[in-house]
Design brief:
70 residues, 4 strands, 1 helix, single chain, alpha+beta, 17% strand, two-stranded antiparallel sheet
Length: 70
């Protein structure tokens, strides 16, 4: 099993961790959000929070999307 060691770390001015969705079927990092919907739920995948998730215009877009797909 691999472990992260102190000597594995490289100094950087970039700070923070951001989750990124990876399509494991094709080995591709998804750069945009993905909407998945069932009859009773809507899931927004890969949305950068809080920029997308607290945006009123994004909420309106999702409501329109759900209405159009029903």
């Amino acid at each position: 099993m691999a472990y992260l060691r102190t000597e594995d770390l490289i100094p950087s001015d970039k700070v923070g961790i951001r989750l990124q969705l990876v399509n494991t079927k094709i080995g591709y990092v998804e750069m945009d959000y993905i909407i998945e919907q069932t009859n009773s739920s809507v899931h927004i995948l890969n949305a950068i929070s809080p920029a997308f998730t607290s945006s009123f215009s994004f909420a309106e877009f999702i409501l329109d999307y759900v209405e159009d797909t029903r």
